[in-house]
Design goal:
Elements: H1 12-30, H2 35-38, H3 49-68, H4 81-85, H5 92-103, H6 108-125, E1 131-134, E2 137-140, H7 141-163, H8 171-188, E3 194-198, E4 202-206, E5 220-223, H9 225-232, H10 238-243, E6 247-250
Parallel strand pairs: 3-5
Antiparallel strand pairs: 1-2, 3-4, 5-6
Helix pairs in contact: 1-6, 1-7, 1-8, 3-5, 3-6, 3-7, 7-8, 8-9
Amino acid sequence: MPPRPRARMYDPAKTRAAVTAQLRHVRDAVKELDEERLGAPTRLGDWTVRELIAHVTMAVRSVAHLLEQPAPPSREPVVTVTGWTGATAARAADIDEDTRALAASAAPGELLKQAETRFAEPAATAPGDRLLATRVGAMRLDDYLVTRCVELIVHTDDLAAATGAEIPYDRQALATTTRVLADALAAKAPGGSVEVRVPPFAVVQCVEGPKHTRGTPPNVIETAPLPWIRLATGRLTWPEALKSAQLTASGDRADLGPHLPVLT
């Protein structure tokens, strides 16, 4: 068994600022959407743009909501950021139900405004080691905020795809998301025979097999952050990425298809 990689550390202040910045980018984009585009389909099942925006709202406002609830017992196992990536799919039905209810409760712009307002104070004052009783188990607040970066970036890309809007990506939030999903791949397919490069944010080794010791590894995959995020979340398939030249892959083992997606 290859050694387990050390958990990556994220700067809490930068993470909190990144969540705020990306949420503001989404708010600005939503202001420009008319009723026709709010009712447009998305690549997320039968969700419309309206449900997608509600889901983004729910992802951020959950921080304040969880801080208002009692902390889980400290003896409970604590879910890491990487553990979160592998646990979300089991909660899909609950997330879908809550998203639809929220979407029906208020206009998208108002929901986003409420989320930003509710996030502001806990983002500034709550201690990072405060445990939260999340859908997937107990998580430290600082780790949960990292997952909010992932939610915001992934769904900003979904929103842009559905509406054609040009929405900025906060650099810190984009970097965090890239690294979280790269680490999730390394955890899902541990090893050292393939090096995955997502410049300028992440490099990980994964997949069982011979490990290189010096020089350029024999199996190298390289792509940009957004194509990587789409691959890691199932928005883009491995054959599609190769055919459209959104990545380069060299070496006999340079095939991540069996190991993707890492977040659904």
